[in-house]
Amino acid sequence: MRRAPTILHLDMDAFYASAEQAAKPSLRGKPVVVGGIGPRGVVSTASYEARVFGVRSAMPTAQARRLCPNAAYLTPRFTLYRRVSDQVMELLHALSPLVEPLSLDEAFVDLEAGGTEADTAAARAVGERLRRDIRRTTGLTGSVGLAGAKMLAKIASEQAKPDGLVVIEPGTERELLGPMTVRTLPGVGPATAETLRRAGIHTIAETAEAGEAELVRLLGKAHGTGLYAMALGRDERPVVAERDAKSISVEDTFDVDLTDRTRVRAEVTRLADRCVERLRAAGRSGRTVVIKVRNYDFSTLTRSETLRGPTDDPSVVREAAARLLDLVDTTGGVRLLGVGVTGLADFTQEDLFAQLATEKAAEEEAERERRVAAEAAREAADEPERPRRWLPGLDVIHEEHGAGWVQGSGVGRVTVRFEQPWSGPGRVRTFPVDDPALRPGEPLPLVGGPAEPSTGPAQEGPAQKDPAQKGADQKAPAPQSSAPATLPNSVSARAASEPGTGPETESGAGMSSR
Ligand SMILES: [Mg+2]
Questions:
Q1: How far does residue 410's CA lie from ligand 1's centre (Å)?
Q2: Segment among 83-87, 96-100, 382-386, 503-507 with least mean pLDDT
Q3: Active-site residue among 49, 100, 106, 267?
Q4: Is the dihedral of CA 24, 30, 32, 37 positive or negative?
């Protein structure tokens, strides 16, 4: 436990939903739910306006629709979220070499390791500046918690939400934690909470008062001891940067399930390269290559292969990953792919000369692969138009009307709202699903688009309406006729309700290319 609150926890506010509201002016200030839109879908993120109705992350989307039928139900656009996440992580890395990402929008930072003075005022100043930088760079808001321990910093950022900063001064944590429900502590799920409730323990203060022996009796040695320490605010876990990690992995979730085997292979190759990039950046090498595949039905499996020695050679990792992929059936559709390397060492033991000799071969091979991939992409582009699945929320471009997003589709029609992050709320138009003038688009940048004719750096421009202001005062002139941002749920749900059917009809349609 530190004497100064120099462990920072950043958590972006309702990340996916806020990004969608920033991208889609008509949805600002309105309930937005991002997640699986099919009948078995699950909510990823609900905007604050939707949370008022009781919609929560991990809730079945069907239940969310009952609670909040007027929300916009959107399919996630991970390409965009990853882009914003990269910007945020870059800002964090500027603060300290010790950054521990927990997800796309959440991370711990050890400020002292980055040279911030060990006192409250200095830490607070860094936190406030970070929040301003995040807003300016991404157009979105994040909340910051500062404390002397990771667990407390995370509780602080939760309290700071939305769009705030909370410092827990070392020495005050017991007083602060005392009245909170024991569920606030990490690792206390419904089952543990129920066990504790039956023993008359509800709050963190009661947990501390129960004493270690009683908690061990109730929950077992490991859990009981750990819980007692946390109830006292004791948490000595260090912030672990990637370079000290025991494994390095990268993964991608796809906007639309991948069914085309060539495409799956190309993605695995790309992930292997990204993984090796990170491995090399950290000055590490690893011995075991792992792939992770999540299917359309969320079943997830991993396969691993251990090499004879540690490597940071992209062609070695690529080949191992490809061999592992050969063991996996992906015909039902793939939702997520990951490639990782574990068993890390600080240097490679491969013979340097052998490596030099293979380098040229690897380069040639990489070049060959690039050609094949480019060819495949061209082929895909030349393919005759097939009926597409226009999932709500995805980007489209219309030859005449420009950039917009799918508001809903079904019975042979697709409804598109034509608006951009920098425009006012746009108009809705409906087209036949096979309208040749309509094609999938790319996510537009949330900040720095062709906004105002202002000349200065776009970030400072007046065009940057703060999308996180809950839209209460969005003053962009709404067209008189603009309908509430409600999607034709029944049809869009039906259109998206056939996971795994006809893999051959789906090759890449609607996929955002990277
Ligand atoms: Mg978040």
A1: 32
A2: 503-507
A3: 106
A4: negative
